[in-house]
Amino acid sequence: MPKVKKEFNFKIGADPEFILTMQGRKVDASQTMKLMLNKKKGFVPDKDGMGFDVDPWGNIGWDGASSTAEIRPKAANTPQEVTNNLGGIFNEFIKHIQICDMSTLSEFSSVGGHIHLEIPKGEKWTKEKANLIHRRLASFYLPVLISENKTNLNLRLKQRYGSLNDKRIEPRFKYPDGTPGCTLEFRCPSAEWLTLPKLANATMAYMAVVYHEILNHPKEFAKFNDIVYKSDKQGEALQTLAIMEYDILTNSILSKVKKYIRTFEMYPFYKDEIEYIFNPKQIIKDKQKANYNIAEGWKLITAKNSPKRTEILSPKKKVQEIASKKDFDIIKKVMNIHYNDDTNVALFAESLKDRVAAFNWKLKNNYFLFGMRKGIETIVSKNLKSEYLTGEEIIKTELDKAHLDNLFEKMQTKFNANMQRITTLDFSTGKIKDIRESVIVIGIPYTMRVKEDIKSFLSTIWELEKKEKFLKKYKKENILINDRDLPLERKGEIYRILTKQIATPHQDVVFDEGSVSLRNHESAIANMINEELSQNYN
User: Fold this and answer.
1) What is the pLDDT of residues 51-72, one digit of tens each?
2) Cα distances (Å, whole numbers) of residue 392 to 224, 369, 405, 501
3) What whole-number distance in Å separates Cα of residue 352 and Cα of residue 322?
4) Were both Cys, which of 100, 454, 497, 498 would link to 375 (CB 3.0–4.6 Å)?
């Protein structure tokens, strides 16, 4: 059989979408690309204001929702050429976007892998003809459909997006003589075929081989009408079968699809690609191996583990040398690292951002930094599940824990007022994932901030990225001292620091706030207990 790929007598195009993510969260594609690609060599803002032309391969930008990225390779008469155009754009794109992941899963967005097939020049299809051709094409889509992530597919359908009946016919280009050219936009696929170049090439080849047969051999194609659905409801039922993995009926249809397509005119030229599509289990493995990440699937980045501790602790001078070769200021603007205006906290946040930018460190967690009160000498960190990750060992009493918990709750509220949900869906596994575990609030000691002890802080971040949990869950009944009714001098040290109270046995109790002195020891304790619940923290 011939190894040279025969050109189709129509052009193949695509405008698949994908999601940019950082630290496990989706980032706005429009804002990120405008920030990171503007004035970069090879990226020219397009006339529609929807992205950048990347000559000679095509265009990359965002769709109408702006939050979703979209790539538009130049159309061609062979799937491989379109795939090459995709690769050309990605290779340029990754140079400026390494800090982000490029996911082909929906991540709660309506992400589609739309494929465009040229309608023969001069033809104007009636609604009936368009529906017939689309149904014939979609009826052969089952092998691709069953290789798609079921969680992802379910979510897209619930959003009324990507049904088997989804199509669009409209002018998309002009011929050299100025005549408008139209395409049949096949909108059923998810963007998963964009995960790997082999899959991208195979998917477009598969759809083109079927489309070629429909256009060029309509009478012969009528012989295959036993698998062509007749109404939108039947199309929806076919898609439901694939989602539910109803193997008996699905396998029956799949066997006929394989038998029929192997008789098509263009099958011998694209046998390898089509037979790959007929192996959905392998395709699923290949996508999972790439983590549904375009950067990994297309080998755009060199696979490497997280930076070593020694790299993260690199001296400022070395980081500055790397910074001189990168757009640090731009890269740092898209990071999800927040902080308040306590003394030198900004210095620590910027040092972390510098390391992330310098070593393309893809953080797993989202960080919120603030300054701890003077007297607490340990970095304390908690996630949004109220689990202590570092610093729990300094808690000795019930009041220590109550007031430290209260402080962190206040900081969590301040930093996370706009957090919309506490759980998300892990599209790779289909299981619910608690995102509160990856949102970490860190209190940096006053002495560490004043001394600008950046290394200790960065070392802690490195550990938090390497380990899911530090300590066993806190068991109050086994550890805490009940100090609620004890004299002030015997109450927890953390409690006294946070409430700004100092006491020595049998002496006056001095409150920093208001400079109140109480000579009677019993009165001091009573007054302090009454004020516990109304105490405000800085």
Assistant:
1) 999 999 999 999 877 789 999 9
2) 69, 17, 11, 21
3) 14
4) 497
Greatest Cα-to-Cα distance within the chain, rounded to the nearest angstrom: 105
- Tokens (6 digits) for 268: 């011998």
CA atoms within 13 A on the CB side of 527: 13
Quick check: 337 and 349 in contact, CB under 8 A? yes
Cα–Cα dist 73/164, whole Å: 24
Which residue in this structure is represented by tokens 């920030």? 35
Which tokens sit at 470?
Answer: 């530090």
d(CA 441, CA 408): 7
Helix extents (H) in 112-231: 127-139, 142-145, 150-158, 197-216, 218-221
**Distance between CA 432 and CA 76 in Å, rounded?**
41
For residue 26, which of 71, 59, 53, 62 has the smallest C-alpha distance? 62
pTM of the full predicted structure?
Answer: 0.81
C-beta separation of 9 from 212 below 8 A = yes
- Residue 351 φ then ψ, to 5°: -65, -40
Q: How far apart are CA 242 and CA 147, in angstroms?
A: 9
Nearest to 224 by CA among 252, 179, 259, 273: 259
Residue 502 has pLDDT above 90, yes or no: no
C-alpha distances (whole Å) from 199 to each of 57, 137, 255, 275 are 19, 19, 21, 11
Burial of 423 (0-12, 13-18, 19+ CB in 10 A): exposed
Is there a contact between 484 and 400 (Cβ–Cβ < 8 Å)?
no
Instruction: Note whether 442 and 365 are within 8 A (CB).
Output: no
Sequence spans of domains, the chain: 12-297, 309-477, 483-534
Contact 461, 352 (CB under 8 A): yes
Dig out the tokens for 538 from the structure: 């800085």
Task: Report which of residues 156 and 344 the model is more confident about.
Answer: 344
Tell me the H-state helices in 333-436.
345-358, 398-415
Beta strands in 333-481 (DSSP E): 337-339, 366-371, 380-383, 388-390, 423-426, 431-434, 439-444
CA distances from 153 to 166, 428, 501 (A): 14, 12, 58
Alpha carbon separation from 219 to 125, 130, 223, 225 (Å, rounded): 17, 16, 8, 11
Q: What is the pLDDT of residue 53?
A: 97
| Residues forming beta bridges with residue 59, ordered by sequence position | 53, 72
Encoded amino acid at 241, one letter: L
Cis amide bond preceding 171, omega within 30:
no
